[in-house]
Design goal:
The chain has 257 residues and is α/β, with parallel strands linked by helices. The protein has one domain: Phosphoenolpyruvate-binding domains (TIM Barrel, Alpha-Beta Barrel). Helices cover 47% and strands 16% of the residues. The chain contains 13 helices and eight strands. Strands 7-6-5-4-3-2-1-8 form an eight-stranded parallel sheet. The longest helix is centred in the C-terminal third of the chain and has 19 residues. It is globular. The N and C termini lie far apart (54 Å).
Length: 257
């Protein structure tokens, strides 16, 4: 298990930026890992091309880079958490966590006994180090972020932030804005969203865990990093490929008149 670069940045008080991979294509995941991101997330929740086999292949591909491999899970399930950690993920982003109990279950599923209930298995860990060495380090190295993305979660955020074995609160702005009945195009400048962010960040900081905001494009993500987010993304690979392709085609047509 490699040293967790994201944790090292957090220890230094520095934010991390992650690539976001929704295609489930290992070649693209590896490319994003080499692009300079601190981490690359495989989106198993909303990634159209991501499944059980492709998430494993993507994690192996990211392992060839310096980026930290993370997975956003389909749901808060110990089976999903165990599977991706056994495959080589260095952390998970757990969606739709609305209560203290749900956050506690996610955190404990990421840790081996006596701190948690993760089932022990060799799998990929034993390819690079003895199993006992991995077990000793995994409890401290693996990242568990729980997503705050509903009004219920916002109402419970101070309690959620006290759950044992979680490392941070990760704001899902689209779902949170939808549930708060905010405009999906202007939430980033809405005072109600800003107030929610400030409340969530304060709860995280009060419990010595990291505040995180999913962000959007580069400018929006930078805004929330400046507000205190310690982790964000700046667009998934499909948006980047779409934008790059459109820009190249436009430049070509302009060049030929």
């Amino acid at each position: 298990m490699k040293k967790n670069r994201v944790r090292e940045l957090w220890k230094q008080g520095k934010p991390a930026v992650q690539g976001w991979c929704s295609t489930g294509n290992p070649y693209i995941a590896e490319m994003m890992g080499h692009a300079g991101f601190d981490a690359v997330v495989i989106d198993w929740q909303h990634g159209v091309g991501v499944g059980q086999e492709t998430v494993s292949a993507c994690l192996q591909a990211i392992g060839n880079t310096d980026a930290v491999p993370l997975v956003r899970l389909p749901r808060n399930s110990p089976e999903y958490i165990s599977y991706v950690l056994d495959c080589g993920a260095a952390g998970v982003i757990v969606p739709m966590v609305n209560t203290y109990e749900e956050a506690e279950a996610a955190g404990r599923a990421c840790r081996y006994a006596p701190r948690g209930c993760r089932s022990i298995a060799g799998n990929r860990a034993t390819l690079s180090e003895p199993l006992d060495a991995y077990v000793q380090r995994a409890n401290d190295e693996v990242i568990c972020l729980v997503m705050i993305e509903t009004r219920q979660a916002l109402a419970n955020v101070e309690a959620i932030a006290t759950a044992p074995e979680i490392d941070g609160l990760y704001i899902g702005p689209s779902d949170l804005s939808l549930d708060m009945e905010l405009n999906m195009n202007t939430w980033q400048n809405d005072d109600r969203h800003i107030a929610a962010v400030q409340r969530i960040f304060a709860a995280a900081k009060a419990n010595n865990i990291v505040p995180c905001h999913h962000g959007s494009g580069p400018a929006v993500s930078a805004k929330f990093v400046q507000m205190g987010s310690m982790l964000c993304q700046i667009g998934n690979e499909m948006r980047m490929l779409t934008a790059g392709t459109a820009e190249a085609l436009k430049a070509y047509r302009e060049a030929i008149g």
